[in-house]
Design brief:
By secondary structure, the chain is of the alpha/beta class. Helices cover 38% and strands 21% of the residues. The protein is elongated and about 60 Å long.
């Protein structure tokens, strides 16, 4: 094993999943499974013995729940964790909780044809492990931590829009951006890389936490202030116009940058349909999706923000956008909500002059 080889520990109560993950990982030239465990209690000793770079962790396991184990692990020995989740409503809710507790990302177990399904996603699993190995492990916000300061809404035209793209680490980054916003914020459109079946739970969770209304986008619905619209996990989300109104459009066209939904698709539509009325925000994520689209938005007159490296779980997408010249500002995650409101206020003043 070379010094740069990513050491992976797989924790899953299914011997089949342990074997399949080991097969997928060990076929990669830059990673290796150093041990497997059927439950978290066995895993605890193996972590001490092997000091893995990445842990893959099943959500539902005997002897100790995967979430309980993850919460303890991230408190006592923070490390990159990739969750292995079932594609069910309950599975999606538990997975979102795992991301909240500090897991970097997740892969979904296929419900049928487990071997063929896992092998179909072999490259995706390997990419997520590589991203996890480079990520910044972070602890969950403590239950007794103060809630984020709630911002006041600036006077703004209902034409103003906020357009957000994210991938790895994005579920918590999006929450950090939306939670402080006032109920009458400009309309927000969001593309987060996430499979179908997870985005509805994600939207419902955010809706419970935020003063704005958060929902999964529907094709043709009017885009309204005080609402955030999340791209469904199997459709591109686009901004379109219908008469004087903005509307959301869903598109099941081919993946862009290997993703559907794609951030570039959303950003391109905002650049062409809204121009300087939109504000572009590119958050944490692996790869380059959104970089070219953020540049298009900037060229169309939009203020554009990229999350800074220090606050990203994975700096890939913002780094690519900055390198292309797509970001007007590079900014820490905690400062983004207030900066958005100040940009909206500035545009409102400019329109009234």
């Amino acid at each position: 094993m070379g010094s740069n080889t990513i050491k992976v520990l797989c924790v899953d109560d299914s011997a089949l999943i342990r074997d399949l993950l080991s097969e997928i990982i060990n076929e990669q030239p830059d990673m290796e499974v150093v041990a497997v465990a059927p439950d978290p209690l066995v895993a605890r000793d193996l972590i001490k013995r092997h000091n893995p770079d990445v842990l893959t962790l099943d959500v539902e396991m005997p002897r100790m729940d995967g979430l309980d184990f993850l919460e303890r692990l991230m408190r006592l020995r923070p490390m990159p964790v990739l969750m292995v989740s079932s594609l069910t409503q309950a599975g999606s809710e538990v997975t979102l909780r795992a991301l909240e507790l500090g897991a970097v990302d997740f892969v979904a177990k296929p419900s049928l044809g487990i071997r063929s399904g896992m092998m179909e996603y072999a490259n995706d699993i390997a990419e997520k492990i590589r991203a996890a190995a480079k990520s910044r492990p972070r602890q969950a916000r403590r239950k007794d931590a103060p809630a984020p300061a709630r911002l006041k809404a600036p006077l703004a035209s209902s034409e103003k829009l906020i357009i957000i793209g994210a991938s790895t680490g994005g579920t918590e980054a999006i929450r950090a951006v939306l939670e402080p916003l006032p109920a009458n914020s400009p309309a927000i459109l969001i593309t987060q890389h996430m499979p179908g079946g997870f985005t509805r739970s994600f939207a419902e969770r955010l809706d419970r936490l935020c003063r704005i209304t958060v929902k999964e986008a529907s094709d043709g619905e009017r885009v309204l202030p005080g609402h955030a619209y999340i791209a469904p996990g199997d459709s591109h989300l686009k901004l379109a116009r219908s008469g004087a109104n903005y509307v959301a459009r869903l598109d099941d066209g081919p993946p862009v940058n290997r993703h559907r939904p794609s951030v570039d698709v959303l950003f391109h539509s905002a650049a062409t349909q809204a121009g300087r009325n939109a504000i572009g925000v590119l958050l944490t994520g692996m790869g380059k999706d959104g970089a070219a689209g953020l540049l298009e938005m900037r060229q169309a007159g939009s203020p554009t923000l990229a999350q800074d490296e220090a606050s990203c779980v994975v700096f890939g997408m913002p780094r690519e956008a900055i390198a292309l010249g797509g970001a007007v500002e590079v900014i820490g995650l905690d400062a983004i909500p207030e900066r958005l409101m100040s940009l909206v206020a500035a545009s409102g003043r400019a329109q009234r002059v």
